[in-house]
Amino acid sequence: MSELDEQIRHRREKRDALAEAGIRPYPTRFELDLEPADVHARWGEKTAEELEAENVRLKVPGRVTAIRRHGKLVFVDLSDGRGRIQLFIRTNKLSDEGKTIVEHVDLGDILGAEGALMRTRMGELSLMTETLTLLSKALRPLPEKWHGLTDVEARYRQRYLDLVANPEVRETFEARARIIRGIRRFLDDKGFLEVETPMMHSIPGGATAKPFRTHHNALDLELFLRIAPELFLKRLLVGGIPKVYEINRNFRNEGVSFKHNPEFTMLELYWAYVDYHDLIDLTEELLPGLSEEVLGTTKLTWHDAEIDLTPPWPRLTMREALAEHSGVEASVTDTAEALLAEMERRGVEPPPDRSYGKLLAHLFEELVEDKLIQPTFLLDHPVEVSPLAKQSVEDPRFTERFELYIGGMEIANAFSELNDPDIQAERFQQQIAAREAGDEEAHVFDADYVRALEHGMPPAGGEGIGIDRLVMLFTGMSSIRDVILFPLLRPEDPAEEPTEQGFEAESAEGDPKASSG
Question: What is the spatial distance between Cα 65 and Cα 86, in angstroms, rounded to a whole number?
Fold first, then answer.
């Protein structure tokens, strides 16, 4: 039997002993006053004399993260993930039930404590505990408190332990929640209507991506998990809703990387009677204001770089970006033949589709994308990679589209929406040809969407912003898995269940460096 198995057996025996003593190991509820972090926020600066004068009595719950025994005195730290409060326990002052709980308590148990706030002679804010309630008996030990849960795979797979062992993780997801609230507030204040669109589609659309397939048994329908809500949101423009947005979950059956997860969150908004220039202005207003609201600054630290979100931001076409950041002359980016020759010269493997637009976009991705650290609008993308965007009047090879790059990542994608039904149908046909040539990510023909356009969609601008990548930037996280609570992982191998290594030993009752008394 491993040490971990022995610890679990020992904890189960304690649980059974508590039950035999009439103590419920998993009661229904606890009438609390405040959690530990809130106690410190309210009384953390009070002196011992002030606390005694106020005679503050509280009921506080939390998880046991340290136990220190000194004869009849026991010090227990209760944590809520944001802060902790020390319990000052004189065992001879407890009821028989309280004594039994103290005798059988383990690190990781959840307790409720009632008593008066005080400061010990060492100045530690503590709860002079008169009553203890067992709220949940932990049958497995926690990761070592003072080393934390450091195995990255285990952190993602067992996020509940990650949150207990690493308090800064909770701060990341609190920041994520503030970012999403801020986006909603910004758009609501500007008159946008938040809606919900289907997550199961009979035709995958709104992006060039490989979908996940599923099947509806009752209707005998092949369905696809949503790769983007775009075509449904634009149907609402046809229906007369001029400003609409959705914060949505999308699913793309593609590879994973530090900036890609098969399931991710996007903001998509559509705005009638404007074009992509208006969306540039909107984006330059939204992101700096959001950063100021969430972080109190418009300067971000990303890896070793300081990113300044102060607008205005540079605007470059794809050809200009190649010239400025990789020294690719404009004449080289003017024809497919010249682009192929440049790829061969630089050792860049060309894509299967050798059309001008695909080659230009591919060369940009290979040579420039990761160099765009400061906020940069990349304007006027080729038609071949923008099937839903309106064509440029000045140069029909390109569309009225921008992507926003920050930190070497695409953060936003926007364009003047194509609303000519015949041109849209033609673009869909071109995508079908690309699919038949082997491009699994090419768009399929959506006849109902074309029919909707035939009823008339106003000129409009549409934009998508990647929420996960935005959170990465705002929190300084280097992997998308750090900003998704439960990222997709391979199934766990039962043979690789965590052993006792990295977990608290039963004899180590808390951090020996923690204060007591």
Answer: 10
Interatomic CA distance for residues 305 and 298, integer angstroms: 14
181: in domain: yes
The reply to whether 128 and 176 lie within a common domain is: no
φ and ψ of 29, to 5 deg: -155, 170
Backbone CA torsion sign across 6, 11, 14, 15: negative
* pLDDT tens digits, 93-123: 999 999 999 999 999 999 999 999 999 999 9
Q: CB-based contacts of 463: which residues, under 8 Å, 6+ apart? A: 267, 268, 269, 279, 282, 283, 412, 413, 414
Residue where the block lists tokens 């609570």: 485
The domain containing residue 250 runs over which residues?
167-314+374-483
Taking residues 434-456, report their average pLDDT. Answer: 87
C-beta of residue 334 within 8 angstroms of C-beta of residue 395: no
The pair of three-digit structure tokens given for residue 235, joined into one six-digit string: 């149907």
| DSSP conformation letters of 102-149 | HHH--TT-EEEEEEEEEE-TT--EEEEEEEEEEEE--SSPPBPTTT--
Looking up residue 271, the CATH number of its domain turns out to be: 3.30.930.10
CATH number of the structural domain spanning residue 109: 2.40.50.140
CB atoms under 10 Å from CB of 382, counted, come to 21
Number of separate domains in the chain: 2
Parallel, antiparallel or unpaired: strands 460-466 and 409-416: antiparallel
Q: Does residue 174 share a domain with residue 59?
A: no
pLDDT at 517 exceeding the cut of 90: no
**Residue 147 placed within a domain:** no
pTM of the model: 0.89
Please report whether residue 514 resides in a domain: no
Kindly list the strands in the beta sheet with 200-201, ordered across the sheet, starting from the edge strand earlier in the chain: 200-201, 221-225, 213-216
502, part of any domain: no
pLDDT band at 444; cut points 50, 70, 90: confident
Closest alpha carbon to 388 in 440, 441, 351, 425: 425
Please give the backbone phi and psi of residue 184, each rounded to the nearest 5 degrees, phi first: -60, -45
Q: What is the DSSP letter of 379?
A: E
Is beta strand 213-216 parallel, antiparallel or unpaired with respect to 110-119? unpaired
Whether 32 and 110 map to the same domain: the answer is yes
Q: Same domain, yes or no, for 19 and 135?
A: yes
Question: SS3 letters for 399-422?
Answer: ECEEEEEECCEEEEEEEEECCCHH
Q: Within this chain, do residues 309 and 384 fall inside the same structural domain, yes or no? A: yes
Among 134, 105, 138, 132, residue whose Cα is nearest residue 28: 134
DSSP letter at 260 equals B
